Amino acid sequence: ENQMMIWINDKFTVENSKEKFKLESENGYYFDEKREFKTESGLKAVKEDYVLTSKKGFYNIDSEEGRVEGNVVITGVKDHSVTKTEIALYKGGEYLKVPEKVEVRKDGNILYAENGIYDIKKDIGYSKQPGIFDNQKDKLKINYKDMNYDRKTGKYRFNDFKGKKEDVLFSSEYAVYDEKKRQFNMENSAKVQQKDIIISSERFIYYRD
Predict the structure, then answer these.
(1) pLDDT, tens digit, for every residue of 148-167?
(2) Model pTM greater than 0.70?
(3) What angle do CA 168, 171, 173 make, to 5 degrees?
(4) Is residue 89 a contact partner of residue 99, using CB atoms and an 8 Å limit?
């Protein structure tokens, strides 16, 4: 099927006022019938308090769908978070999916996940695969089965929580980390072990003064 294609041989900007979304690149293509932009010369997308950069990508004006690939970096302007991955899929006003390994750095914490999805409406990020949460401020490293992060409350929620701080081991079926209070709440079969000492309870609270 023939369609009109425009080669943009210079810097260009695409703005979607409905979404408060702006896309910039050094050059690229515009497909008239699809109403779609495509670039392989570096891409920068800005939406409210986030800036995304990647090596290449496309964006459809009508469906408000996009895909970016290659050294994808998403920077939070307000919360100073940095997310790194290789592929991200975007659906306007709904979600941002990361189908491959992702690393998120924020407030001295590093989250490693096999994949993830950010629900834009709820302002919550999810990962349904096992991963690692490295709480560098308190030197506590955690393995989890799955997790979610609520940006509004600043709380991480983990299932099948297993942590280690020096020679102390922590575990529970469920745990919540409050990044504002720097506090872990461990619930359901919670256990703390240091060498030959084991403390068991249905709930522990771990925090730093």
Answers:
(1) 999 999 999 999 999 999 99
(2) yes
(3) 170
(4) yes
